[in-house]
Amino acid sequence: HLGITGDGPHRGSQLHVSDLTKREKALGNNKLALFLNRSAPLSVPTAALVAILFFLSGGALTGPTKVSAQAKHGFGFNVTNISGFPTGAATLTGGGAYVPGTTFVHSGGSFKCTATVLQGPLNGCLAGQGIRWDTAGLLPSTTFKCAGAATETLKTATTSDNTVVLLADFYRQGDGNNESFTAKMIVSDVDLDPVTPGIQNVWIQQVGCGTGIVNFD
User: Which residue, 34, 144, 148, 151, shows the most beta carbons closer than 10 Å to its own?
Assistant: First the structure.
């Protein structure tokens, strides 16, 4: 199941994929489309829920073909502070579905730079900028560092049943449908960096790692 917590009507509740499927069918594709096109900002758990509902409604897919529903892995997450590199920090939330070992992925959500980033792929993302992210591709694996120090051990994350490695497009308000930045990201329900104190389970390339509420199904 996908546990989504935070503010909003589903605070503290556990939402099952089967429940979401019933809800999406009840809403109908037309109503869901209107909901996805709403101009009002989405709360953190609602953004993750929308991503999952859009997948369930048969939204656009990244990959050559659709695959069977039985093979898909769903995920949802929310992290309020991703940092570690010399400059910059970000919030990130979202969710979607993917199939390990294929190119099938559909995911997205919201993001914001909470401190100005002056290195890496998000270089130039100023504090307060950023509205959403979506998927450019599913990656089999990537190497990463949480802080970027020369002495930090280079680690590897691999797409699996409980970890997804993505190439993502990040958008700022005013750039329309043109991506502002493209960077790798990792979402996992296991600790990506056991050496560092705490749980590091979400990562953005050359921004750093963060502790998030993460669920895979």
Answer: 144
Nearest to 91 by CA among 83, 102, 100, 99: 83
Q: Please, are residues 62 and 99 in contact by the beta-carbon 8 Å criterion?
A: no
Contact 79, 211 (CB under 8 A): yes
pTM: 0.72
Query: What is the band of 88 on the pLDDT scale with cuts at 50, 70, 90?
Result: very high
- Going by C-beta distance under 8 Å and a sequence separation of 6 or more, which residues neighbour residue 186? 142, 144, 157, 163, 164, 165, 166, 192, 202, 203
CB 192 within 8 A of CB 144: yes
Helices (H), the chain: 17-36, 44-56
Q: Alpha-carbon distance 90 to 34, whole Å?
A: 29
Nearest 5 degrees, angle CA 164-CA 128-CA 79? 30
Q: In sequence order, what are the residues at sequence separation of 6 or more whose Cβ sits closer than 8 angstroms to the Cβ of residue 55?
A: 74, 96, 97, 106, 107
